[in-house]
């Protein structure tokens, strides 16, 4: 029985009637960019996330770039990011001409280490960008305390974490000055293409972000600053409006699957570290939304090849930390040591976790891993 890493067709089939109707409605209207579907998406996402303002944008990457632009970050400025994340977290900083300052992550949660952030602050630090990696909140109390002590804004990279709750119940993206979300199709809430969202509780910043996404234009054809084309399409918003009401049940399905994996791995007693849900005791339903279920295992690449040959899809998020990327070789902090991120980059393996998976498929994944590890380490 093949087990794909992700099968979006199952979700599409379940919502086909509504999704097709939404696509046809936008096609018939020929109102294709921004407009009423985007307004509805922004209103409903703001309510769901518990923020005053949500602004639909072209992608999660562009959301991060816009956050840098909104803070007037540029050459000579430093922005602290974990070295273990998706490329866009640091790419956005370099794209505005600023210098990313890479810091290591926590070995248990794989999220950015607050102590490492504190040690990396200089007079040039203009923002801190924690990432809620794999759908689990970073340690926001500690991060906000450091940021507030120094008066540095926090931009949450919540691309993998729409709906994730911090241990106090707040949704991520509502804690820092701005939140950046992605609707890339592999995220828990995926569009039919590229799309993203920004959040903030700051009224003036929300106005600026809306202007930024449309070339800094206000009123029409008058530009007081330079923005970009960071707009979201109506088709993406219409699709997302159909999907948003189902998000909580999809989170629930992922959490159910994660619990099954946790149990199966514990029973199999393998040399595999399963993801730690650091806030499991807090009692909130979506503290971890498992955009990925990522294990840590020695001999990862050979195991992955074996799973591939057995028809089981996996992915390595992420094999090369920022400090080892060729394009960041001249970033000063790339010369620092990041033992935790290096350890993880060589050992992480993300397993199929999407909500439509059947328990037998999860059993097959763990049984195949168990059989392989027992024969190779015997
Ligand atoms: C997906 C992702 C992004 C970028 O989002 P896109 O919509 O693909 O541009 C940024 N940061 C992280 C952590 C991501 O996982």
Strand numbers in spatial order across the main sheet: 1-7-6-5
Helix content: 40-55%
Biggest beta-sheet profile = 4 strands, mixed
Rg from Cα: 21 Å
User: Which ligands does the model contain, each kind named once?
Assistant: pyridoxal-5'-phosphate
Name the poorly predicted regions: none
Briefly note the structural class of the backbone. alpha/beta
- What is the tally of helical segments? 12
CATH domain class of the largest domain: Alpha Beta
CATH topology tier name of the largest domain: Aspartate Aminotransferase, domain 2
What average pLDDT do the residues reach? 97
How far the N terminus sits from the C terminus, by CA atoms, comes to 26 Å
Let me know the CATH homologous superfamily of the largest domain: Type I PLP-dependent aspartate aminotransferase-like (Major domain)
Helix-strand string: HHEHEHEHEHEEEHHHEEHHEH
Number of domains: 2
Portion in strands: 5-15%
Beta strand count: 10
CATH architecture annotation name of the largest domain: 3-Layer(aba) Sandwich
Molecular shape: globular
Task: Describe the protein in words.
The chain has 378 residues and is an alpha/beta fold. The protein has helices spanning 8-29, 36-49, 60-70, 88-95, 114-120, 140-150, 203-212, 234-243, 247-268, 300-309, 339-347, 359-377; strands spanning 53-57, 78-82, 99-103, 125-128, 155-157, 178-182, 196-200, 272-273, 293-297, 348-351. It folds into two domains: 8-245, Aspartate Aminotransferase, domain 2 (3-Layer(aba) Sandwich), CATH 3.40.640.10; 247-377, Alpha-Beta Complex (Aspartate Aminotransferase, domain 1), CATH 3.90.1150.10. It contains twelve helices and ten strands. The strands form three sheets. It has a four-stranded mixed beta sheet. Strands 3-2-4 form a three-stranded parallel beta sheet, sandwiched between helices. α1 packs across α8, α2 (36-49) packs across α8 (234-243) and α3 packs across α7. The two termini are 26 Å apart. The structure holds pyridoxal-5'-phosphate (PLP). Residues 59-61, 85-86, 88-89, 131, 157, 159-160, 182, 184, 194, 196 line the site of pyridoxal-5'-phosphate (PLP). Pyridoxal-5'-phosphate (PLP) is lined by residues 59-61, 85-86, 88-89, 131, 157, 159-160, 182, 184, 194, 196.
